[in-house]
Every structure is written in structure tokens, then in C-alpha cells.
Amino acid sequence: MKQTKIFYWITTGLIFIMEGVLPALTSQTELAKEGISHLGYPVYFGNALVVFKVLGSLALIIPQVPKRLKEFAYAGFVFDFVFASISHFAVDGMNFQSFFPLIFLAILGGSFMSYQKLETKAYTTHSI
Fold first, then answer.
1. Among 64, 58, 35, 57, which residue's Cα sits nearest to residue 47?
2. 80: which residues sit within 8 A by CB, 6+ positions away?
3. What's the whole-number average pLDDT of the chain?
4. Which of 50, 19, 34 is nearest to 91 (CA)?
5. Is 69 strand, coil or helix?
6. Most buried residue, 12, 42, 79, 93, by most Cβ within 10 Å?
7. Closest by alpha carbon to 8, among 120, 124, 118?
């Protein structure tokens, strides 16, 4: 159980930093605006994406957030990573930038699996 908690907090912490903290701090830089435009998206889409990333990462990291809301946040990040990868493949071809979101998809999967394991353990412990 302790190993699962450690794994959950490490993977979820990485998602929080990369999808919550960094976008919040860098979304208005010229590099970020050029990056979103390079993929063919309008700048306002990038702004909306950052808002949802920050809210989703907060939903994952705050323990008091209801399970259903956390699951929506996980689903939103799955879409985010998959479509980020597709966008980079379509615009830039096959390179590291195209695979990078899939690395975070794997980290997110680890976070989700450990979250489910912790929730199942908590449920069975409380129901006895």
C-alpha cells in the first residue's frame, strides 16, 4: 500500500507540474503562443487549454476532490495527450515532439492505475 501511495504521488506530482504549474507560468510567453500557432490552433484555444489543464491538475492533486471529478480530469488529460501527439505528427512528422505527449500519457496511466488501486483498497477497508 505504501509503495502504491508513493508511486501515485510521484506520477500525479509530475502531471501536476508539467500540466498545471508550467502551463500556468509560461502560457503567455511568445514561445508558447508560437507553439500553439505552429500547430494551426488560434491563440485563444491555447488560453482555454491552459485553464482546463490547471483545473484538471488541481483536481488530480487535491485529495478532497470527488472521485467522479478526478476521473473526468484523467479522461481530459488522455484526450489532451493523444490529440497533442496527433497534432505534432500531422504538422511536424515523426519526431521526438510527436512522441513526448505519449510519455506523459504513460505517466498518467500509472497515476490512474495507482489511484484506482488506492481507491479500491480504501473502499474495501471502509466497508468491512
1. 35
2. 19, 49, 52, 53, 101
3. 93
4. 34
5. helix
6. 12
7. 118
